[in-house]
Amino acid sequence: MSCLPISLVSASCSLFLLTFGVVSQAQADSMSALIAQKSVQSDYASPSYSSVPSAKVSTRSTIQRVGRYRSSPVNVRPTTSTTYSTTTYSNNNPYANPPALTTSYRYPDVQSQAPRALPAFLSGNYDNVDSEYLPLLSSAEMQSNTAAREVVSTARKMALNERAIVQGGCWDYLDAVFKRAGVTRDTVHKGTYGQGPYANSSEIEVGDWLYYINHGYNGVEHSGLFVGWVDERAKQALILSYAGENRREPARYRVYDLSNVYQIMRPSV
User: Is 223 a member of any domain?
Assistant: First the structure.
């Protein structure tokens, strides 16, 4: 194997190194150009330059509100409930803390009285008492004791025959009835409007002056003259009631709910 001269070997090496350097520089330039090109392509691939629309991000909450509870028919309560307050009133202002009121009350259905012969003093056409309650009014007047009979008959004359108008309200009317009948009144049950205690139906008698919660008219306090039970179990009774004030209407006989009678004043001679 022959050896090349040292000078020739050196020249060959120099030429190789020069060629390698040129190639390396060309590759480096090519690599730099490629990186720059990729950078430009990356910029144009951003959402602001892309021809493909970017995905939309919803900001709407996926939380659903719970719907309003609706009970099944078996759980539906009657709409005729009444709410009472247990507030005690001050002596200076009895209306300072009225009980909770409701207007959704509905009187339960009651059976009509069977028609019967009426006495002569009830033979007439009246617009302030239903004819079906005239037998009950007749019984109250004819079968009660002396003091009660005087009160019931006096009230009937004032309401049906004279259609008397008394200045004031329910209290003033009944006060006029008792005075005209010539009887006094004794308190046999006394409670309060807001707290009771409320009387049992067995405590109430014909001719009694009652104070009670008027469930048929916003739960206000009211007073009336007890005539008789229409349905004692349901506490439905025929009452002589006087609205008074500026209505200029005679007293009338109506059925009231006596679930909450808080005072009873009884006529006596």
Answer: yes
Q: Please determine, for residue 100, whether its predicted confidence score (pLDDT) is greater than 80.
A: no
Q: What is the CATH number of the domain that holds 204?
A: 3.90.1720
Amino acid of residue 122: L
Of the candidates 101, 74, 100, the one whose C-alpha atom is nearest the C-alpha of residue 86 is 100
Domain count, the chain: 1
Reported for 166-171, long-range contacts at CB under 8 A and 24+ positions apart, including other chains, are 166/242, 166/244, 167/244, 168/244, 168/245, 169/242, 169/243, 169/244, 169/245, 170/222, 170/223, 170/224, 170/241, 170/242, 170/243, 170/244, 171/223
Calculate mean pLDDT across residues 166-188: 96
Q: State the residue range of the domain holding 198.
A: 129-268
Taking only the tens place, the pLDDT of each residue in 216-243 is: 888 899 999 999 999 999 999 999 999 9
Examine residue 71 and state whether it is found in any structural domain, yes or no. no
Of 178 and 31, more confident:
178
Label residue 25 by pLDDT band (50, 70, 90).
low
The tally of CA atoms less than 13 A away on the side-chain side of residue 37 is 6
The answer to whether residue 50 is domain-embedded is no
Token pair 């009444």: residue = 82
Report yes or no on 196 lying in a domain.
yes
Decide if pLDDT at 201 tops 90: yes
Backbone angles phi, psi at 216, to 5 degrees: -80, -5
Residue 189 β-bridge partners: 264
Query: Is 28:22 a contact under the CB 8 Å cutoff?
Result: no
Residue 241 CB partners (closer than 8 Å, separation 6+):
170, 222, 224, 251, 252, 253, 254, 256
**How many Cβ atoms are within 10 Å of 191's Cβ, its own excluded?**
16
Per-residue model confidence (pLDDT) at position 73:
40
